[in-house]
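User: quick one, fold this
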Amino acid sequence: MAVHAAAPQEYYASTANQAEALIIDVASRVQTGSALRMDMSVLSKSPARLSGLEIYWADGVLEVECLEHQTRIKMLAGLTLDRGRRLDDPNPAFHVWSDNAPGSPARALEEFVCRGHPDSDLKPLASLTEFASAFEGGAATAQANSRPPTSGGPPPAPSPQGAVAPAGLAPYYRFGGVPDSAELHDIAGVKRTGPYAFTTLITLRLKPYTMGGTDFYWVEYTEEFDCEGHRFRNDATFSLLTLDRSQAFNSADKAKLGAWGPDKPETNGRAVEDLVCRGKVEEGEIGVYDLTAFQRQFFASMRQQPVR
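Assistant:
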């Protein structure tokens, strides 16, 4: 497997996903064994609103295992559309490996970076800024003209909603739920420790919890999966967030994991395990790319405004 030398910052973009574009820097490729690592960016149509900024870009590292046909990513920072302001991830780490299935965009990308096979969806770029302006309809230039001066000091830490899922997956997936709530699993935030995978279960409620005069519509807590033993357990502690996710209440400072329960075959629990541990999406699992847009759609589907 040969890796050809290239000029600095040789960008290629894939827009197979209309909601976001994947950009890789072929010139940054570094080979270790049968794996290649390179710089990558993801540009989203809908921004994540973090610490008062609209984050369109997510910069990180893409790793492709050329013989095992797998891909994983590590996100490093989120940036505004004009790339003028940046929020660094304080604890960057690689996400779980995902399979590059034959015929998928991920396999086509593998064929291009590992073997030099042409991919009709990958287009060379002259400039990230020019590409962003075209992809977002000229908004990058407008944002650059209106951007306030950067304040001193370190940037605030981004929330998990700024993360990006492994190639081919949405950041979140919805699994059914009950009539007065919707449940999402945070796939972009999956962390692996040996055979164990940790993710966040996010619940959006039609009726809020009210504490101290503040309405909390979002509930989040940690789930742990034993990917080899087919077991799961939940954290007894939780976080509550307001509808715009700007205020939070944490029930405790330390996690309190409960007892293990089985993920039996052909159950919803095993389907979640397959998604979290193996990146396998089952029929009926709905990908979600933006929590703000999702909550609007959720309440619209209920044909009412949030209950207060």
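User: anything notable?
Assistant: The CA atoms of residues 195 and 227 lie 5 Å apart.
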